[in-house]
Amino acid sequence: MKFKELDPLLHNQLRLAIMSILLNVKEAEFTFIKEKTGATAGNLSVQVSKLKKARYIEVKKSFKNNYPLTTCNITKTGIEAFEGYVNALQGYINKKV
Amino acid sequence: MKESTSWNEAESIQLIREMIEATKYQVIEERFLYLLWGYGVAGAGTIHYLLQFHVGYAHPYLVWFLMPFLGMVNYFYLKKKSVKRQSNTWAGRVLSGIWTGMLFGILAAVAGGFARGWEEAYPVMIILYGLASYATGTALEFRWLKIGGFGSKVLGGLAFFFGFQYQLILLILAVLLSFVLPSHMMGKNK
Predict the structure, then answer these.
(1) Which domain of life is it from (chain A) (predicted)?
(2) For chain A, which domains are there?
C-alpha cells in the first residue's frame, strides 16, 4: 500500500494549529490565534505568512478602535489541503493499527 | 507552543482536536440572555395574569411594553460582546440565525394576535420559544435546552386547546422550562 505524502506545509505543529483554528471559525484575529496556540508573535507571523503565500489562508489588515487589526480566514484551497492532510494521516494511522 | 521536529501522526490528530476544542462555542456564553428573557417574559406574564384575573385591571397587557426595554438591553449586550469578540465561529452564526429567525417569528405572531386574537397567537409564540431552544440545544449538544425546548413545544400544542387565562400560565411555564431552567443548568455545567 502506498501512502499519500503528508503536506509538508501542514505537517508543522504551529501551522497545523493555525489551520485547525481557522477551520472552526469564520475568521479570527491574530491575537486570538496567538492566545490559543501560545506561540510568540514573531513565530506566528512567519507561519501565517507561509500559509498566506500558499493561499491556504487570507490575511486582512484593518483598524479597530484606532489600533491595527489583523484578521485571518481559511480559503477553499486551505480547506481542501486540510482535508487531504487529515485523509493522509488517517491512512498512516490505519496502517499502524 | 513548542515546536518539535519529531512528532507523529497521532500527535497531529491530537493537536487538531485540541485546537477545535479551544475554539468551540460555549453554551455558557449566552447565559445572560436566557436569564434576561426567561425571567423577563415569565415576570411580565405573571403580572399580566394577576392584573387581569385577580386585580381586574382594564389594561393588563400594558406590562408587555416592557419588552422593548429588554430588547435594548439585549442589543447593547450583544454590541459590547461583538466589540470584544476576536473570532467568529460557525456555531455563533448558526445561533444568530436561529434567534433572529425566532424574533421575526414572534413579531409575526404579535401581528397575528392583533388581527386574529391573542388566543391564536400565544400557542404559536410558545412553540417558537421551544423551537429556538430545541435547535440551539441540538446545535450545541446541550441536553437541558433540548429538553426545555421540546417541553415548550408540547405546551404550545396544548395551548391550542385552552382559553387565554390558561395560555398565559402555559406561556410562563414554557419560558421557565426552555429559558430559565437551561440557563441555571449552564451555570452548574460551567
Answers:
(1) Bacteria
(2) 13-96 (1.10.10.10)
List the domain boundaries for chain B.
Answer: 26-188
Which residues in chain B are closer than 8 Å to A96, comparing Cβ atoms?
9
Partner-chain contact A21 B3, CB within 8 Å: no
User: How close B49 gets to chain A, by Cα (Å)?
Assistant: 45
* Chain A nearest CA to B37, separation (Å): 27
Q: What is the pLDDT of residues B105-152, one digit of tens each?
A: 999 999 999 999 999 999 999 999 999 999 999 988 889 999 999 999
Q: Residue A27: its chain B contacts at CB < 8 A?
A: 87-88
- Cα–Cα dist A37/A46, whole Å: 14
Residue numbers in A near B19 (CB within 8 A) = 17, 20-21, 24, 36-37
3-class SS at A55? coil
